[in-house]
Amino acid sequence: MAIDVKFWGVRGSIACPSPDHVVYGGNTSCVEMRIGDQTLIFDAGTGIRNLGKDLIRRKVTEASIYLTHTHWDHINGFPFFVPAYNPVARFHVLAGHLTEQGGVERVFSAQMADPTFPVPLSAMKSKLTFEDFPVGSVLNPADGIVIRTAPLRHPNGATAYRVEYAGKSVCYVTDTEHVPDQPDEVILDFIQNADLVIYDSTYTDEEFPAKVGWGHSTWQEGIRLCRAANAKRLALFHHDPDHNDAAMTVIEQKARSQWSNTFAARDEMVVVIE
Ligand SMILES: [Zn+2]
Ligand SMILES: [Zn+2]
């Protein structure tokens, strides 16, 4: 009766493999949640490539993929998601920000179109289905699993997800921008009493004034929101590629000294919520 969370990509903006990004990792956004025999995938950044290999190892051939939005760092691992080429596999891709903009299938198809990618979406022989839902919808992927959704403040829109199962809850809240000293009431309500909040911590409060309008938040705002909403744990997420291991170590230490229930997500880190 647990939610097993595994981080496959924790960066924002662009993948940043380098000798200075080994501890926290360099892949862009992708988080897996396993509940019983259900596999839920959140975003398809470059981290989904390794997740795909793991699904093949585990013989998992069915999953839902929930997109916060379709900026590159959240979708461009998908062409390298090998299970999607398996004819017996089934994947359902959902998004909440494109109902009035042509839908998510069009974006996935365009991403793999000539001349920017050599293999078209139609070469993926798994049973691929796409769904655009109005943000705010409550989704019910399987018995006992409820997924709530909420709008985020981000250029072109983005969707937050709250996964609830057996009295436990995990919130995936990226990408979003806050207004200093005006806590986002939608997020506060959304993350109330959550067991784990994965939050857009791209910047620090010190960096934030130079990044207003870029659509991201800070680790300090994550702590303020979690405390106000009585959430139990905070995962700093969507790290700035310019925050190398040394910078991330300092950020994580400072964050933990402010609120010990905080940690910085790393590639391949597992957190079990039970
Ligand atoms: Zn992003
Ligand atoms: Zn974005």
Strand and helix layout:
Layout (H helix, E strand, L loop, with lengths): L2 E7 L20 E6 L2 E5 L5 H11 L3 E6 L4 H4 L14 E6 L8 H8 L15 E6 L5 E5 L2 E8 L5 E8 L2 E6 L11 H6 L5 E5 L18 H10 L5 E4 L7 H14 L3 E3 L5 E4 L1
Parallel strand pairs: 3-4, 4-5, 5-6, 10-11, 11-12, 12-13
Antiparallel strand pairs: 1-2, 1-14, 2-3, 7-8, 8-9, 9-10
The protein binds zinc ion (2 copies).
The site of one zinc ion has 5 residues, from loops.
Description:
This protein is an alpha/beta fold and about 270 residues long. Helices cover about 20% and strands about 30% of the residues. The strands form two sheets. The protein has a seven-stranded mixed β-sheet. A seven-stranded mixed β-sheet has the order 7-8-9-10-11-12-13. The model has no long low-confidence stretch (mean pLDDT about 100). The structure holds zinc ion (2 copies). One zinc ion (ZN) binds near residues 29 and 73.
Main attributes?
seven-stranded mixed beta sheet; globular; 274 residues; binds zinc ion; alpha/beta
Tell me the quaternary state: single chain
Structural class: alpha/beta
The poorly predicted ranges are none
Number of helices: 6
Q: Cα distance, first to last residue? A: 7 Å
Describe this structure in a few short sentences:
The protein is an alpha/beta fold and 274 residues long.
